[in-house]
Every structure is written in structure tokens, then in C-alpha cells.
């Protein structure tokens, strides 16, 4: 008995990386065991993406710019960013948020709370849907193609700065973090509501606003929308900031200044995105912890 | 030991390895209460629509003031009717839910603070819920547990092999959990819960829905495991056989309160007001009105079984014997199952009107 006790590692810090690795591995093993499902899911999400792309190809037959500064390839880079972020969120967090609601309803959340590891970490990353990641690679290809087109065109080519390539993944990660925060907060409300099936719907309504350049939100309706979804629920920052980083010259560029409205210049946005990320993560953590103390655990 | 269960103020984590020498009991509960609001749904569509804006809530007191001390190495059974608060008590002790009031300490930790130091040292097994990945072989889930609990690889393999051998599931480790039978799955759940060698084990109806053989296997395993490791176990079960086979101490909970705490045989002394008397009469000598002596359980001349109030047994027997014609007499306690069922029913009938 005594020897068994001393065998235990003295440091109580859980091995987060090892746990994450095992969960990723287990998810992959699981996904692979349903081969056809894996294949079909990959194909449907690819098809959905192609349809989207086709639609915008049509749109650009009739217009040169969707909004000031957003020509065909700028917008395709924007689209690629949307897909990139969505594919990461859908692969890593969407199945878990859904599962979380279900765990609350059935009482299986008990098991997550028993483990000597952060419950939010465990719940957020338990199951990964690898098939959603197929879009990730297509998005990278589309991004590379758009950037190549922008840098090699004759009129006003994009001056690609190494800084842009470094900042892009950072802001993509910020975008993912903001969407994740929103999603886990929404899912955590199921603890109070008992059931929250509108998760997907609500999710779709809100993220809808993140899918277009923020310049299109102008005027009596547009400006309040833009301000709300930038400062209150910062979903507009999610795609716009990284897309801007990669497609609009910021530093040392020719200075194609984009009219953002008063007080919303590029540098401000870059700073604000970081702040919004930290704020969202903090708020999500708070909501999650608060929700857990109200957890009642469904009957055995 | 129980007399010295005054709460000793000390940082529990600093003394983890010395813990066995502390005067503190493994589990100490005082005045533990848990109540929650339940939405009272009326019948019918009209009521459902009204329920959209005006809801009637009912305060459900799942646990109302439990005091309990359990020493290291005890195997305690929680008995009680459905909804008595057994599972809620286990959930409180494992920190899954927060209490409304009261205190509890398990291994020196307050459970609902959910400290990692505490969570490494206990396990909760629920017969009606499963934590293993449904589509994966159990061994993949075990691997994940190894990482979460930080079990050293050699210790992990040793414990896993020992447990799979004891439960005879060595050849099922690589089969997806969804393809296992209920009994096999329960064994895997047990293994998953025991991989980190917990010091305290909470078992919530671990044999529910299992056939007699599987039930017996799991009982045997639990008995052996508990004796070998001297772990502290709290078990809830509806099967008397589980309790009789495993526990020296029985705690009866009804309506969120402890009604009895003691040995299994003590239940009969406390709650059974009657004894069963079996009589064999000589040919044609059976009295015509047996009812006068007690409740007739069976009457197949020349044999009869009567239920007689305990305090009247000697008197009745001497009357019967003095009449003559009795060839054989046996006096037994009422069967435990019946005593407990009667007791639950009594408790149910005595519900106070405030409920």
C-alpha cells in the first residue's frame, strides 16, 4: 500500500500535450474505422466549398470589386481564410460543443468532472472530426493561388512582406479562438437551459456576419451591425483581420488605405483583434466555470 | 476511531504519504444537504403552454442532512428505495455536484473543490452510464486514462494486466466497446475506473441489468480487490445479494436521511417485528383456526407457516405445544429482502404532509 502511494508522480500537473495527442489519435482511429463515412464527409464538404467558389466566380463576372479594396483575388483570399478557420473550428470544436450539450442532458458530463485535468480542456478537445480537415488543405491551396495571382498581376501588384506571412497564422489562430469561445459559451448555456438544440442555428446566424468584408456593412443598417459584431460580439474580426493581413498591404506597402469608418484603421484592428481574442477566451472561461457550478447531473 | 473524528486542521496535500497515520477518517460527512428546483409539469398541452411563462417549481430535497463517518478499508453499502438520495450522495462525494449546505471531507479533501490531488485518488463507477469510447476498443480508452492520470507506463501495464486477468477479459481488449455485451462492458468500465489505483471507490449500482453469472463475477472481483488493496468502498445497489456478499456495514437512506447504520443482520433486529414459525403437525391434529395464532403464510397439511409478532412467539408456541399434536417446530427471522421491502414501504407511507 505504501509503496503504491510513493510510486505516484509528485507533480500533480496533468500532461496536457500527451492527453491531447492521445485524443487526436483516438479520434483518427475512430474516424478511420468508418471508412466510407470518412470519405463521404470529406467529399460533401469539398463539394460545398466548390459550390461556394463557383458562386463567387459568377459574381465577379459582373463586378470588379465586392467592396472597396476587395477585388476578385483579394476576396478569394478572404474566402480561403473563412474556409480555413471554419475547417479548424468544425474539425476540433464543433463536434465537442455538440457533444457537450448532449453530455449535460444525459448526465455524462459527470465523467469529465471526475478526471484530474481541466474540464474545459477535456470537453473542448475530446473528439476531433478529422474529415472536416480536408477543407483545410483546399483552403490553403486556394489561398496560395490567390496570393500568387495578386503578387504577379500587372496593375498594383501586392507587395508580399515576410511579416504578412508570419502574422497571418497568428490572426487565423485568433479567429479560431474567438469562434471557439463563442461556441463553448453557447454550449455551456445548456446547463441552465436543460437543452439547447438551437446551437447550430444560432451559430450559423452569428457567423454569417463574419463571412463578408466589413466594408460592406455601411449606412443606417450596416454601421450599427458592424459596430455590434465588432465590439460586442467580435465575430467580424475573425476572418476580416487575417484576410486583411494577407491581402491588403499594411506596412511598407503602397498604402491602399481602406476606409473603415472613424477610428477603425488597420493598425487599430490588428491590436483590437488580439484584445478581442483575450477577452473572448476569458469570457468563455468565466461562463464555463459559472455553468459548471450549476450543473445538476441528470438522474442515474 | 469514530470518537476522534474531530476535524483536524492541516493542509492535507502536504501530508499525502503520511495520510495513513493521521487520526482523520477517510470519509467524514456532516449535515450534508442538497436540494434543487424541479419544474413541475402539468399534464396536457394547455398546461404546457401556460408553463412557457409561468412555471411551478417544486423544491426537491434529495439529501437532507446526512452525517456519516467511514474509516479506511471499510466496505459500506447504501440501501434505499429509488430517489432516496443515494446516488446524489455519491455525486456530492465525488464533487460532481455542489451541496446546498453541510460539509464533507474525503481523504482530507473537500470533494466539490475538485482538486486534482483528490481526483487522482478516487473513482466513481456508474452502472447506468458509460465513459468508454463507444466506437473504440477499450484499450484505447485505457491509454487515454493513463495519460490523464499520469500513470507510469510500467505501473499502467501491470495494473491493466492484473485487472483484465481477474475479470477474465484479456481477449476483449481490442474489440470495439459497442460490440461487447453489457456484462463485458461493465467489466471494462470497472477496469477503466481502477487503473489509477484509487484509494476510495464509489460504486453506483455496478451490477444493474446483469445476469446472475455476471453479477456473481463482479461481486467476487470486488470482494477480492477490496481485500487485497484495503481500499474504502461505498456501494449502492438494489440487489441484496451484492450487499450480503460484500459489505459488513449497511447504511439505509430514505427520503434523503440515514435511517439505519450498522450490520446487515442488525437490520432484522431493528426493523423486523415478526418471526416466521414453521410447524409440522401429527396426522389430523392441525388446529382449524390457525389464523388465531398469526398470519398464515402457507398451509399444506400437515405443514404450516405462520408469521407471528416477535414478542408473542414464546407465548404462541407454548399455547400450540400445550395443545399437543405438534411434531416439529422451526423459528426463523423474516427474509432480509422482505424486511427491507417492508421498511421502504413504511417509510414511504409515513411521508410527512409537507412533501
Tell me about this structure.
The complex is a heterodimer of chains A (300) and B (355). Chain A has 300 residues and is an all-alpha fold. Helices cover 71% and strands 2% of the residues of chain A. Chain A has a two-stranded antiparallel ribbon. Mean pLDDT of chain A is 84; it is low at 1-7 and 251-263. Chain B has 355 residues and is of the alpha/beta class. In chain B, 33% of the residues lie in helices and 27% in strands. In chain B, strands 5-6-7-3-8-9 form a 6-stranded mixed beta sheet, with helices on both faces. In chain B, α5 (153-167) runs antiparallel to α6 (182-194) and α9 (264-271) crosses α11. The longest helix of chain B has 18 residues, at 212-229. The chains are: A mainly alpha (300), B alpha/beta (355). The A-B interface holds A 1-2, 4-9, 12, 14-15, 18-19, 21-23, 26, 29-30, 33-34, 106-108, 110-111, 113-117, 119, 122, 293, 295-297, 299-300 and B 16-17, 20, 36, 87, 91, 94-98, 114, 116-117, 119-120, 123-124, 126-129, 131, 133, 135-136, 140-141, 143-144, 147-150, 152, 155, 176, 197, 204-205, 229-230.
Provide a compact summary of the structure:
Chain A is an all-alpha fold.
Low-pLDDT segments, ≥5 res of chain B? 1-21
Q: What is the count of distinct domains of chain A?
A: 1
How many strand segments of chain A?
2
DSSP helix count of chain A?
14
Radius of gyration of chain A (CA) equals: 22 Å
Structural class of chain B: alpha/beta
User: What Rg of chain B do the Cα atoms give?
Assistant: 25 Å
Key structural traits:
heterodimer; A: 300 residues; mainly alpha; 14 helices; 2 strands; B: alpha/beta; Rossmann fold; Alpha-Beta Plaits; 6-stranded mixed sheet; 13 strands; globular
Amino acid at each position: 500500500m505504501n509503496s503504491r502511494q510513493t510510486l505516484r508522480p509528485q507533480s500533480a500537473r496533468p500532461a496536457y500535450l500527451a492527453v491531447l495527442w492521445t485524443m487526436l489519435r483516438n479520434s483518427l482511429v475512430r474516424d478511420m474505422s468508418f471508412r466510407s463515412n470518412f470519405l463521404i464527409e470529406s467529399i460533401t464538404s469539398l463539394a460545398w466549398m466548390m459550390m461556394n467558389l463557383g458562386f463567387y466566380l459568377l459574381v465577379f463576372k459582373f463586378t470588379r470589386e465586392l467592396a472597396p479594396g476587395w477585388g476578385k483575388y483579394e476576396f478569394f483570399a478572404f474566402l480561403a481564410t473563412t474556409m480555413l478557420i471554419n475547417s479548424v473550428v468544425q474539425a476540433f470544436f464543433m463536434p465537442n460543443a455538440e457533444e457537450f450539450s448532449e453530455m449535460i442532458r444525459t448526465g455524462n458530463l459527470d465523467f469529465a468532472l471526475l478526471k484530474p485535468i481541466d474540464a474545459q480542456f477535456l470537453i473542448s478537445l475530446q473528439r476531433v472530426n478529422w474529415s472536416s480537415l480536408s477543407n483545410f488543405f483546399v483552403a490553403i491551396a486556394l489561398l496560395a493561388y490567390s496570393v500568387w495571382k495578386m503578387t504577379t498581376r500587372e496593375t498594383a501588384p501586392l507587395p508580399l512582406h515576410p511579416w504578412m506571412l508570419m502574422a497571418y497564422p497568428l490572426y487565423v489562430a485568433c479567429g479560431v479562438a474567438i469562434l471557439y469561445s463563442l461556441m463553448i459559451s453557447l454550449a455551456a448555456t445548456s446547463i441552465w437551459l436543460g437543452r439547447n438544440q438551437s446551437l447550430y442555428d444560432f451559430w450559423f446566424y452569428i457567423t454569417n456576419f463574419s463571412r463578408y468584408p466589413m466594408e460592406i456593412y455601411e449606412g443606417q443598417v450596416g454601421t450599427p451591425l458592424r459596430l455590434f459584431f465588432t465590439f460586442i460580439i467580435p465575430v467580424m474580426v475573425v476572418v476580416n483581420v487575417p484576410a486583411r493581413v494577407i491581402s491588403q498591404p499594411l506596412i511598407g506597402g503602397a498604402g491602399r488605405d481602406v476606409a473603415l469608418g472613424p477610428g477603425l484603421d488597420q493598425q487599430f484592428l490588428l491590436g483590437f483583434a488580439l484584445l478581442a481574442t483575450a477577452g473572448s477566451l476569458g469570457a468563455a472561461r468565466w461562463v464555463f466555470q459559472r455553468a459548471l457550478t450549476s450543473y445538476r447531473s441528470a438522474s442515474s | 476511531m469514530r470518537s476522534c473524528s474531530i476535524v483536524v486542521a492541516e493542509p492535507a496535500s502536504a501530508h499525502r504519504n503520511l495520510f495513513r497515520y493521521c487520526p482523520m477518517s477517510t470519509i467524514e460527512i456532516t449535515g450534508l444537504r442538497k436540494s434543487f428546483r424541479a419544474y413541475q409539469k402539468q399534464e396536457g398541452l394547455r398546461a404546457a403552454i401556460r408553463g412557457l411563462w409561468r412555471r411551478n417549481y417544486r423544491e426537491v430535497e434529495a439529501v437532507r442532512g446526512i452525517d456519516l463517518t467511514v474509516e479506511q478499508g471499510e466496505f459500506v453499502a447504501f440501501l434505499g428505495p429509488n430517489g432516496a438520495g443515494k446516488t446524489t450522495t455519491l455525486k456530492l462525494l465525488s464533487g460532481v455536484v455542489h451541496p446546498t449546505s453541510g460539509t464533507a471531507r474525503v481523504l482530507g479533501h473537500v470533494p466539490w473543490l475538485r482538486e486534482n490531488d483528490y481526483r487522482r485518488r478516487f473513482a466513481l463507477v456508474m452502472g447506468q452510464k458509460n465513459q468508454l469510447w463507444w466506437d473504440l476498443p477499450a484499450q484505447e480508452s485505457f491509454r487515454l486514462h493513463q495519460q490523464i492520470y499520469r500513470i507510469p507506463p510500467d505501473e499502467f501495464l501491470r495494473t491493466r494486466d492484473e485487472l483484465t486477468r481477474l475479470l477474465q477479459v484479456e481477449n476483449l481488449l481490442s474489440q470495439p466497446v459497442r460490440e461487447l455485451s453489457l456484462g463485458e462492458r461493465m467489466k471494462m468500465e470497472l477496469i477503466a475506473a481502477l487503473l489509477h489505483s484509487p484509494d476510495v471507490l464509489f460504486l453506483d449500482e455496478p451490477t444493474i441489468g446483469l445476469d446472475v453469472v455476471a453479477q456473481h463475477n463482479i461481486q467476487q472481483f470486488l470482494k477480492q480487490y477490496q481485500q487485497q488493496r484495503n481500499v474504502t468502498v461505498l456501494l449502492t445497489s438494489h440487489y441484496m445479494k451484492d450487499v450480503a456478499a460484500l459489505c459488513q456495514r449497511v447504511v439505509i437512506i430514505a427520503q434523503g436521511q440515514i435511517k439505519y447504520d450498522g450490520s446487515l443482520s442488525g437490520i432484522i433486529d431493528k426493523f423486523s417485528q415478526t418471526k416466521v414459525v414453521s410447524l409440522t403437525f401429527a396426522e389430523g391434529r392441525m388446529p382449524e383456526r390457525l389464523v388465531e395464532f398469526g398470519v398464515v403464510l402457507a398451509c399444506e397439511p400437515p405443514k404450516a407457516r405462520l408469521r407471528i409478532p416477535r414478542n408473542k412467539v414464546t407465548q404462541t408456541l407454548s399455547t400450540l405445544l400445550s395443545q399437543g399434536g405438534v411434531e416439529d417446530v422451526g423459528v426463523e427471522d423474516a427474509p432480509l429482502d422482505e424486511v427491507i421491502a417492508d421498511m421502504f414501504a413504511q417509510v414511504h407511507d409515513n411521508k410527512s404532509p409537507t412533501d
